[in-house]
Design brief:
With about 350 residues, the protein is an alpha/beta fold. About 55% of the residues lie in helices and about 15% in strands.
Length: about 350
């Protein structure tokens, strides 16, 4: 701000000198505006072109004053302009350094590779949920429109993924424009983080298997998802409306969430009926995925279902209710007594 203010002052002083010089030449040499402007230009620039009128003593002394003040002012303008440029670059470098330090300190975050149309939707959803995430994008124009933590780079390159903290990330989604780039990104990310959840966008039906073999946990085709969504809205409009209401982050009243039961929590080795989850939280447990099953869900689990460490509960309810269950899933017996 200081540098910009100084540049503004320098420009005002310069224009005052120019205006004064024009008026002075018009008076001392009795010439018109254009000739006076010409005299001002050749005097301030010291190019040495011929004068438009015979110089009298007053005009000569006036020219000396114009040259002395003009050269100093021009130097001040150039110096101030250079300071503004260097200050801008310095601030940009400082912001980038601070951003890199912030990203380096992240843990258990998400990485979004590509901020195209699909990527932008994912970014908005993550922002609405308050999730920690880093975006990798190589288009400077797109980057200018993004807020938050952004890395300018190629997501297929190992350096970009490492800079985004892929080794400590909780999940990664790649939505690059080419399936080959998505496959390469998945391969590199999986190599550095074997346990991370990786999702990928596929553009054609043949890419799904390639992405899975590369290490993606799942792959989604926007065309296929869009088609299924439209068919659902056509055939089951009420159900589709309800599901939109559940996951609509713009106006959330209900949420569907996945809760992990931590080792040693008060829910471990407890029957569902004895856990009193519904009594304490008011949540509805839609499904349960046992720790030893990566694909199979137990829908509408029975009251005598045993809850164990690392089981995942799929629940639906309000935010505060979900937070209560998250606390129960993490709390230990000793922690409960202390409380």
């Amino acid at each position: 701000m200081f540098h910009k203010h100084r540049l503004l002052v320098a420009l005002i002083v310069f224009f005052v000198i120019v205006a004064t010089a024009i008026v002075g030449y018009m008076i001392f040499l009795d010439i018109g505006f254009i000739d006076a402007l010409y005299m001002t230009a050749i005097t301030l620039s010291t190019v040495g072109f011929s004068e438009v009128a015979e110089m009298n003593d007053q005009a000569k002394i006036f020219s000396i004053l114009v040259i002395m003040s003009g050269i100093g002012t021009i130097g001040f303008v150039v110096s101030s302009f250079a300071d503004v440029i260097s200050a801008g670059k310095f601030n940009q470098v400082r912001r980038q350094r601070k951003m890199k330090e912030t990203i380096a300190a992240l843990q258990d975050h998400y990485i979004v590779c590509g901020a195209g149309e699909t990527g932008q939707i994912i970014i908005r959803e993550l922002e609405a949920r308050g999730a920690l995430f880093v975006v990798i994008e190589n288009n400077p124009k797109v980057i200018e429109e993004l807020d938050g933590l952004v890395i300018e780079g190629d997501a297929t390159r190992e350096e970009s993924l490492l800079e985004a903290g892929v080794k400590k990330a909780r999940g990664l989604v790649t939505t690059l424009s080419k399936d080959a780039d998505n496959v390469y990104t998945v391969l590199t990310a999986r190599e550095h983080n074997p346990d991370m959840l990786i999702l990928a966008r596929s553009h054609d039906e043949y890419s799904y298997k390639k992405l899975r073999r590369a290490g993606a946990n799942n792959s989604v085709s926007p065309n296929e998802m869009g088609g299924k969504k439209l068919a659902s809205m056509l055939l089951r409009p009420s159900i589709s409306h309800f599901m939109d209401h559940v996951i609509d982050t713009a106006n959330i009243s209900l949420e569907m969430e996945e809760i992990d039961i931590q080792t040693g929590s008060i829910l471990c080795n407890t029957r569902l009926k004895d856990s009193k989850i519904a009594e304490h939280t008011g949540l509805v447990i839609l499904a349960l995925r046992k720790a030893d099953s990566k694909e199979t869900f137990i829908f509408n689990p029975k009251a005598n279902t045993l809850l164990e460490a690392k089981d995942k509960m799929i629940v639906i309810g309000e935010k505060e209710q979900i937070k209560l269950l998250e606390t129960m899933a993490k709390s230990t017996m000793s922690g409960t007594h202390e409380h």
